[in-house]
Amino acid sequence: MGPPPGRRSRPVGARRYPAWVTAEDLRPPAATGEAVRLRPVRDDDLPHFFAFEQDAQANWVAAFGPVDPADRAAFEAHWRRIRADPAIVTRTVTVDDAVVGHVAAFPVDDQTEVSYWIDRARWGRGHATGALAALLAELPRRPVRARAAKDNAASLAVLRKCGFVVVGEDSGYANGRRAVVEEWVLELAA
Questions:
Q1: Per-residue model confidence as pLDDT tens digits over 151-172
Q2: What pLDDT shows up at residue 15?
Q3: Among the CATH numbers 3.40.50.720, 3.30.1220.10, 3.40.140.20, 3.40.630.30, which is that of 34-188?
Q4: Cα-based distances in Å from 99 to 37, 118, 169
């Protein structure tokens, strides 16, 4: 009997990650003392965001990303839609005035969910933790939910540092891996 429909089995001892994903890519972030700041997203931030999404390793680790990161028209349509929606809070993450990523809060099934994307060149410096903590300070409503691939140790560490706890699990097709991926559902309670 094989794996359930939509799931792929992995032979015992097989690599869990592609060869180009290093231990450094998965290491939980360490604080650096660099000042992380949030500001509203501006048009001139979008080329940075698009460039960040071209990183195949970052897409694989994050798992749940755009169908085709190279599709500029889809990228621009996505950002037009979310910037026009007053229910979605989006912020550019900066360090020393350099754009390093973005964070967002958005409604899902009458709850608030958060997500973030940090340039892989900046991973491991505490930027995601600082950005998420700053975004959460802007959000008055609790609980807040988040999701992370079960094997994304760094993202799970960010969420736990910000007070999230695992409340469930799910699975879904992950564009970054072209496969069904299991994920944890986490929540920051009131």
A1: 888 889 999 999 999 999 988 8
A2: 42
A3: 3.40.630.30
A4: 10, 9, 32
